[in-house]
Amino acid sequence: MRTSAPVSVVIPTWRGAEWLPRCLEALSRQTCRPWEVVLIQNGGPAPEISPPPDLPLRFHRNPINLGFAAAVNQGIQMTRAPYVAVLNDDAFPEPEWLESLLEAMEAGPEIGSCASLMVFAHRPDIVQSAGIAIDRAAIAWDRLRGHPVVQAQAPAEVFGASAGAALYRRAMLEALGGFDERFFAYLEDVDLAWRAQIAGWRCIYVPRARVHHLTSASLGEGAPLHRFLLGRNKVWLVVKNAPAVDLPLIALYDLLGVTYALLRRGDRWALRGRLAGLRGIRPFLAERRPGSPRVIAPLVPPWQVSQRWMHPWTSQARSTCPRILGVDSGRHGRRPPDALG
Questions:
Q1: Residue 131: how many CB atoms within 10 A of its CB?
Q2: Checking phi first, is residue 324 left (phi over 0); if not, alpha (psi -120 to 50) or beta?
């Protein structure tokens, strides 16, 4: 068993003082200690915490909230290890988390990222994410969300890793230019995963790398800003990455999803986000480098989309998660469980 890992851990935070001590304590108990841990305070008051004395922690404070993507990129630039782990401040890894991710990453040079088994902190028997899945309609979701943990024990190659608890190869991050900071928050991990797939990198899901996650602790999955950013970033995600042949299909599914949100819930934020995305579309068109993901989920009819994550356990798990308003500090970048596309 190795005692030191060539890994830099980056933790972006914004008003995370309530749960950050638990996150740092969990890091200090890893069987394989990281070279360094960088805490990026993304605006707001500095957290009054006493980190574990044996944790190699550095602190950087931004005067304003630059968003999740920019904060992570800052942490990447400030560190030196060949691998970078990104961790939400409301995520609490079990002791073998980092060692398990590193073991999977070192299995081959073509592996650019590794996804954790994220479980609901208040329902650790239920999966919150087992990597990111995506289909031809550009609908991305947390793989196996709502399933019992016993059904998520098989390692697998997946589309991408949720950046709430992931390990990345620095060479891949540098080759791809890191996270797209214009996304601010949400879907930037999907965008990174898609670009990585196009470039030939692989992502491996590692079930032994288990993390307990509060899930949208800073924002809440149904908050207006959450839905606005998802809508805006969905447009930019598609424009940057989706093959031309899939665009009509994507537009159809997305139109149905927005219409459903308007008629069923009176939700105008998803539409407003998409309109904002269209208004800001020009630079993304200029940078467009489309391609089909190597790992893609089967397409299902629109009326069956929500069945991918709607399971008897999901509503119970969600009901125990906190709903605290603010700008999310973490990476809950997939569609919310009640959205179509």
A1: 28
A2: beta
Residue range 65-80: mean pLDDT, rounded: 96
User: What is the pLDDT at residue 319?
Assistant: 36
Report pTM.
Answer: 0.90
Closest CA to 174 of 189, 196, 158: 196
pLDDT score recorded for residue 312: 52
Residue 38, beta-bridge partner list: 10, 58
> Quick one: three-class SS letters along the chain?
CCCEEEEEEEEEECCCCCCHHHHHHHHHCCCCEEEEEEEEEECCCCCCCCCCCCCCEEEEEECCCCCHHHHHHHHHHHCCCCEEEEECCCEEECCCHHHHHHHHHCCCCCEEEEEEEEEECCEEEEEEECCEEECCCCCEEECCCCCEHHHCCCCEEECECCCCEEEEEHHHHHHHCCCCHHHCCCCHHHHHHHHHHHCCCEEEEEEEEEEEECCCCCCCCCCHHHHHHHHHHHHHHHHHHCCHHHHHHHHHHHHHHHHHHHHHHCCCHHHHHHHHHHHCCHHHHHCCCCCCCCCCCCCCCHHHHHHHCCCHHHHHHHHCCCCCCCCCCCCCCCCCCCCCC
